[in-house]
């Protein structure tokens, strides 16, 4: 991320989402959350894709507390999860 900040092109929401999703796919949720925090500290507001990605991979990794907290945070920011996202959360609780 530091290299991107030094380049003349600053990362946007799409770039951050791709990086977050890449770390999630690699199973490195800790790094995905680090990038998410950097994204927020840069003044960006997460969009539905970022929330969906993080919730999906937290559920996949059986990190339902994190998925639930992310879902709650998304609703506080006026993004409400899709039926598929809610299904993943419920499936994890069963």
- Taking the alpha carbons of the first and last residues, their distance comes to 38 Å
Give the full name of the CATH homologous superfamily: Tetratricopeptide repeat domain
Residues in helix, %: over 70%
Share of β-strand residues: under 5%
Order of helices and strands: HHHHHH
- Name the overall outline: globular
What is the CATH architecture term? Answer: Alpha Horseshoe
| DSSP E strands, number | 0
Family: Belongs to the PPR family. P subfamily.
Pfam families: PPR_2
Keywords: Repeat
Outline the structure in words.
This protein has 94 residues and is mostly helical. It has a single domain (2-93), classed as Serine Threonine Protein Phosphatase 5, Tetratricopeptide repeat (Alpha Horseshoe), CATH 1.25.40.10. The chain contains six helices and no strands. It has helices at 2-6, 13-25, 29-41, 48-60, 64-76, 83-93. The longest helix has 13 residues, at 13-25. It is globular and about 45 Å long. The mean pLDDT is 87. PPR repeats lie at residues 12-46. Keywords: Repeat. InterPro entries: PPR-containing_protein, PPR_rpt, TPR-like_helical_dom_sf. Belongs to the PPR family. P subfamily.
Give the arrangement of secondary structure elements.
Blueprint: H1 2-6, H2 13-25, H3 29-41, H4 48-60, H5 64-76, H6 83-93
Helix pairs in contact: 2-3, 2-4, 3-4, 4-5, 4-6
Compact overview of the structure:
The protein is 72% helix and 0% strand. The chain is mostly helical and 94 residues long.
Feature tags:
single chain; 94 residues; mainly alpha; Serine Threonine Protein Phosphatase 5, Tetratricopeptide repeat; 6 helices; 0% strand; globular; PPR-containing_protein; TPR-like_helical_dom_sf; PPR_rpt; repeat
């Amino acid at each position: 991320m530091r290299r991107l900040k030094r380049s003349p092109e600053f990362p946007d929401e799409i770039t951050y989402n791709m990086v977050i999703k890449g770390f999630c796919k690699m199973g490195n949720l800790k790094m995905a959350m680090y990038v998410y925090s950097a994204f927020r500290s840069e003044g960006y507001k997460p969009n539905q894709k970022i929330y969906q990605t993080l919730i999906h991979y937290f559920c996949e990794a059986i990190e339902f507390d994190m998925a639930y907290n992310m879902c709650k945070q998304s609703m506080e920011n006026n993004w409400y999860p899709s039926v598929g996202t809610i299904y993943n959360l419920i499936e994890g609780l069963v």
